Model the fold of this input.
Amino acid sequence: MKLPPPLNWLWKGWMAFSEVLGKIMSFILLTILWIIGFGLYAIVMKIGVLLRKEERKTSYWLDVPTDFPDSMKHQF
Amino acid sequence: MTSYLVSWLFKWIVGTNALAVYQFPITLLSVKPTYILGISCYYHDSAAVLLKDGEVIFAAQEERYTRIKQDDDLPVNAVKHALAIAGITIDQIDAIGFYEKPLLKFFDRLLPTYMKVWPRGLRSYHMAMQEWMHKKLWIPTNIQKKLKYKGPIYFIPHHESHAASSYFVSGFPHATVVTVDGVGEWATTTIGEGRGTTLQLKKEIHFPHSLGLLYSALTYYIGFKVNSAEYKVMGLAPYGEPKYMDQMRELIDLKEDGSFALNMKYFHYEHGLRMTGPEIETLFGQPTRTPESPLTQFHKDVARSLQEILNEAMLKIVKHAKELCPSDYLCLAGGVALNCVANGKILQSGLFKDIFIQPASGDAGGALGVALAIWHRIFKGGPVKRMEHVFLGNEYSNQEIEEILRKENIPYEHMDDASLINAVSYLLSGENVIGWFQGKMEFGPRSLGNRSIIADARNKENWQKVNLKIKFRESFRPFAPTILEERLSDYFALDRESPYMLIVADTLPAKREEIPAVTHVDGSARIQTIRRDQNPKYYDLIKAFEKRTGCPVIINTSFNVRGEPIVESPKDALNCFLNTHMDYLVLGNFLIRKMDMPKKGVMDREAYLKQFQLD
Done:
């Protein structure tokens, strides 16, 4: 967006402010997600790990998952 | 696209999958060539590769253009040069390939890893999320927007890109394929098999267990930059003794079949911003070395022990790979395949008749791999020729060079090819250090004779001169020799070509005193062989040097200073020349002498070096 020269600084200032605000907001939201979303799932995962019996492995090689049709068209 | 439609139609009519049957008509009926662009970016070493009907016509890393070492941004400059060289626009590109599967990496590995390490890892999580939300989750959109591209975009797993970058250009009809690097999506090490135009990965080892990350973690512990200075650790190792093998075995559980698991209590990279922490300091009994502080015998011994465990692991992996996917030929790729010492051990083991190592084995090579995979799998293209050289970047004509020299007011002498070779071979004998800038830029991390600094390998003083006064780098770092291929067995214990400087072998004991500047303290050398068909001008220069001195070996090191990307343009070469103690510069057919330089042409050296972050 382009404003007439005298108002340019207003636009630039607003953009700079929104950048900072975006960073603060994303920091807060990500932290909440970390505590609640990740935290709950992590606790369940950790309990699962504690209950699982650790087996001594003779090899760490794993089979490569089978490819699915048209897999190259997808990002997953 | 045309060839694809034709191949599909033919396949439908003939009703067979036999490649040979429908390849022939494709070639005859195709109206326009098929252009495929491979891209790697957003981690490190971003690059672009352009294929025309399966042939590589351009390959370059973005860092060369932006002058930011290991630039990870979308390679818009490299793409621009690729299109210019091919004489096409982006609309004529039939497909773009991205070298990994971003969503798989994000949802399947990154998020579960943070859940695994929770509540640790908050800072790393914040940084990673910002980066993913801004860039990495929008790769197709970014490609479409920044490159103004509207066609299809394909994705293959990171290690398949590595494997494809090696096997498909190896020239082998069938091969065992091994890839080893830091990490892709989940895989850090894979074993696979290539047959004809098909490639299949069969076994893998998952993150966080990674030989690449083990090497990087110890690189960090020894005080060098991660993802950048691992080769320094390799160069440091011969100064040490393997005194810390017990500690290494505490760090890694290495099985007989080459599979391994790291003892993660010593590593922080899953959750932290540093690779290691106090645990590893307790294990080795010494603190982490601060960058630029003195290197002691302890650091050399750790480097040697690390190199020994890597050699052992790599040998076990390729042995197991041969058992799983038997072949006389081996293809290697992934960042760890740049470890020339381990490569040399694999070659010496005699497990394979021949091995091919992708010269751009790091992530830059992934751009080549994905482009080749698209050629074979989407466009059903036929076999690709063996990669005989890496001179795949852009070049500058003598006219362009002269314009730059005139503009910069640099005194120069123009010579024809024969006079130039004669003059430079004369200047090369002795103490002079020469910048050699010719033809197309190399793809990958090595300068192989077109963007090189060269000197006389017989003069031991040149080792220190080039290290300290030209490249401003650590004095312990060795230099690689280039040798005429036909004279290889006269100087080195190596029985085959090594055109990409990716194999370490011993200098013959009788020759070690003759070429001290390229013989490392343990008597080894990181060899580059050269044939005339690979690079005629560079070959002719060494041949002329041999005629003059009887020695077919010279020092060849990359044309840059420490922390600087290898020079791309005559202007970059000129800047590097003016701000180092280099004696002569050869730009195409122009000879430039330092003694003729006007004083004002020489920039403030400190200011020049400050532009580049030390690695």
Remarks:
- Chain A has one helix and one strand.
- Residues 3 and 10 of chain A are 9 Å apart (CA to CA).
- Chain A touches chain B through 24 residues (CB under 8 Å).
